[in-house]
Amino acid sequence: MVDDPGNYLRQDHLLIPSITAGRKVKVAMGYSFKGYMRSDGSAGTRNNIGIISSVICSSTVTNEIASKIDYAVPIVHSNGCAQLGDDFSVTKSMLSGVAENPNFHSNLLIGLGCETNQVTGLLAAIPNVKPIDGFSIQQMAGGTNTVAKGVAIASEWSKDITNEQRTDLPISKLKIGVITTDMDEQTLAITTPVVSALIDELLENDSTVICSLTRRLEPSGKILATKTKDTRSKEMLKTLSEGLNRRRWENDEGYALSVFSDEEKSLAAHEARLLGSKDLVELLNINEKPSNRGLYLLKSSDNIVETISNFVSVGCNVALIISKEGILTTSNVIPCISLAPCNESQIHRDHVDFYIARGNEEKQTVTLLEKLLQVSSGELTALEEYELGEFAIPHIGTTF
Amino acid sequence: MKTFDGYRRPDGSIGVRNHVIVINTVGELSALTRKIANLTPGVIPVIHHGGVAQFPEDHTQTLRTLVGTAGHSNVSATLVVGTENDPIAQEIYKILKKKGKPVHTVCLNKNQKIPEILHEGRSWLLTALENSKKEVREQCDITELIVGLECGGSDAWSGITANPSIGAFSDMIVREGGTSVLAETTEAIGAEHILASNAINREVGREFLDIVRTYEHRIKQTGEDIRSANPTPGNMAGGLTTLEEKSLGCIKKGGGTPLKEVISYAGKPTEKGFVFMDTPGYDVESVCGLAAGGAQIVLFSTGKGSPTGSPIVPVIKIGTNPKVYEIMSEHIDINAGKIIDQNKSINDIGKEIFDKVITVSNGEKTAAENELNQEFAIWRLAESI
Predict the structure, then answer these.
(1) Are A5 and A364 in contact (CB under 8 A)?
(2) How close are the terminal C-alpha atoms of chain B, in Å?
């Protein structure tokens, strides 16, 4: 066993002159990153153009437009038509939330024309704080015309982006999503001291941290309920801890409820410590944006692509993904820093950004914070380098 | 007996295309799968975001769809990208091997570096592409054809021109011993009694009414009215006023031959003749189910003009009126609007569709294939876990 975590870390994690290694974690107030300030007060860690399809039928045209424009990111998905009720509401709010994400400088919405999720409805739902336009393939009389018009509009935005510079912004402008996946007790034991200390430190510096509440964490609802003063959240968390409850149609009630096992409860109790020592402001529903700064939980699924995309829609500008062995997907809108535990048997993986070892947690927390700031300032994550970004909308119902 | 030139597979099935595809088992691997395809021109990516965090009914449906897609007769060879010890990848591999289909799995060991994974996938695909070029078409009997029947972006003309013409085609191919598969359960609501009364026996009629009832049950449980999503805004702009009106037009795609069988989403017909598949009215999910169930070609009527296709089957678009054919011609293959302004009969257009099915089966590309429309989405039944 090697005690010095530096032995496990990549060299570039250690070249941080501004932090004195080994001392109690304390980041000076006013600590900053270089980002893009938006007119609504939010901050981007990337400066891209969202080319957003309202429905799967316009995804090919959306991809084609994005492929022709610098800084353009295609937001394509399998939803947008023949949806009802809450399932449709999630799709609509998800897409409007994505357009609002501060990492987008501007947005172009592309529809088919006859779909349930109309571009005009999306345009009306998205606050008018940055360049935006939208139209449909049927309105433009075909894909060729749609691509031509889309490219003409987005090209102008692309020129604007070329001239924009990052500026120093306070760490309080960061809205950090935190998700765990593929977890076990050993992974939690190694990563929790560092991640929880980082979350505490971010909150002390007025950042916003949004942790995903997945099926794995739900059994700890009663523990989490003690961390919040919000009555609605308390009740929701207690209810969630009673058993897995999701919508399905295998019985007359229209949902499924199964009780959590002792093993699941034990793992969830471990994972609850990851959130750190600060109070929880609120539990957010899917797509619900935080109303203020602080620590939040966000209802999420175990589908990693859906959950990362959910972070995008609630305004996160960067995310941490903690897993046993690293993951092979990321968001195409926000940088996601992949964290994994390190032990002697594991070899270096090129898709992991940061390894956490046992011991010397304070030094590692400082280094991880530096990594977060560097990535927020423009350094590409491993999965960004490989261009493995994806987007998906959570399903909470069936299509018709 | 009418014939076409297709690819005969080791399991005896016939393909009208000879695609090499790469398909992911779970959402986490979608981007990596797309990247492998991008590195190998000529290979088609089949991408989805499911496979995880699903209830058993969704898991079963996802697996059935992936197996049907990966093992489709239009596919020459399949690379499956899965996680380490991935049960979905193992199942697909086992079934495809048994069929004699060239298949390889890249089951990711996360200790592998990404370039190694990409290299392994690309190397296998390059060989598969080379091998696929050596395969030649041979004369096949039309009885081997399974044609899916779909509509999307319907308007008031759909039930007057394109859908009855598809119905005429359906009757022709069934007469020739082939199979047509009507889909979209939602769009039978209000007209289900007509299709049920056309069933070959009471049991098939009851099965059909059961799937419509199940659908209505699901709708009630959302607390919503299906009519708030269907007819869609586009349908209404096209002159349709109610779901019943839309359904009466939709079922005309089935023609007049008796309904032989009702099959589940992505299920394979066991009978030749006219069959119904239980799918949603959501076009791309419905086409995906038809293809996974073995349809080699899908007919798709459209009143508003839709560009969507499929990664593995040619989708033939049939415009319902002269205007949509004129302004959306890059996305439409056949103009059923000639019934309105060129004195053509429903049977004339049915025959034109029949001839088009043969030429497309022989290799002619459809508008959706030319535009590289390869949309793929699996019908989800329940909330993600």
Answers:
(1) yes
(2) 51
List of E strands, A144-198: 167-170, 175-181
CATH hierarchy code of domain B19-134: 3.40.50.261
Half-sphere exposure of B28 (CA within 13 A, CB side): 19
Within B76-113, where are the H helices? 87-99
pLDDT recorded at residue B40? 97
Note the pLDDT tens digit of each residue in B258-308. 999 999 999 999 999 999 999 999 999 999 999 999 999 999 999 999 999
Of all residues in chain A, the one with the smallest CA distance to B116 is A350
Quote the CA–CA distance of A256 and B70 in Å, as a whole number: 31
Element (H, E) at B334: strand B334-335
pLDDT tens for A279-328 read: 999 999 999 999 999 999 999 999 999 999 999 999 999 999 999 989 99
Q: Based on DSSP, count helices (H) and strands (E) in chain B, helices before strands.
A: 14, 14
DSSP 8-state code for residue A186 = H
Chain B residue with minimal CA distance to A62?
Answer: B373
Q: Of the candidates A302, A303, A399, which has its C-beta nearest B280's C-beta?
A: A399
Give me the domains of chain A, ranges plus CATH numbers: 5-34+169-386 (no CATH), 48-162 (3.40.50)
What's the rounded Cα separation, in Å, for the pair A205 and A169? 13
B 87-146 near A (Cβ less than 8 A)? 108, 110-111, 113-115
Distances in whole angstroms, Cα of residue B247 to Cα of each of B151, B211, B228, B240: 11, 15, 15, 10
A399 touches chain B (CB under 8 A): yes
Please name the member of B29, B374, B385 whose beta carbon is closest to the beta carbon of A246.
Answer: B385
Determine the residue of chain A that is closest to B325 in CA distance. A141
CA distance A361 to chain B (A): 25
Nearest to B331 among A114, A142, A305 (CB): A142
Whole-number pLDDT of residue B112: 83
Whether residues A328 and B29 touch (CB distance < 8 A) is answered with yes
Show Cβ contacts of residue A92 under 8 Å, excluding neighbours closer than 6 positions: A117, A121, A122, A125
Contact status, residue B28 vs residue A329, Cβ threshold 8 Å: yes
Residue A127 sits at the chain B interface (C-beta within 8 Å): no
Chain A hits for B224, CB-CB cut-off 8 Å, are 84-85
How close A213 comes to chain B (CA, Å)? 11
Interchain CB contact of B169 with A (< 8 Å): no
Tell if the CB–CB gap between A328 and B235 is shorter than 8 Å. Answer: no
Closest alpha carbon to B251 in B188, B209, B201, B169: B188
Q: What is the Cα–Cα distance from B372 to B385, expressed in whole angstroms?
A: 33
DSSP state of B18: -
The answer to whether the CB atoms of A330 and B31 lie below 8 A apart is yes
- Average pLDDT over every residue of A251-263: 74
Cα dihedral sign for A56, A318, A290, A278? positive
Summarize the confidence of residues B186-195 as an average pLDDT: 93
Contacts of B279 in chain A (CB under 8 A): none
| Cα distance between residue B183 and residue A224, in whole Å | 47
Query: Is the minimum CB–CB distance between A338 and chain B shorter than 8 Å?
Result: no
Instruction: Give the span between the Cα atoms of A132 and A123, in whole angstroms.
Output: 8
Place of tokens 């594991």: A346
Residues of A numbered 8-27 whose beta carbons fall under 8 angstroms of chain B's beta carbons: which are they? none
Q: Which residues in chain B touch residue A118, judged by CB atoms under 8 angstroms apart?
A: 233
Say how many C-beta atoms besides its own lie within 10 A of residue A292's C-beta. Answer: 8
B217 to A144: CB separation less than 8 angstroms, yes or no: no
The 10s digit of each residue's pLDDT in A371-384 is: 999 999 999 999 99
The pLDDT of residue A254: 60
Q: Which tokens go with B30?
A: 């979608």
Measured between CA atoms, the residue of chain B closest to residue A247 is B383
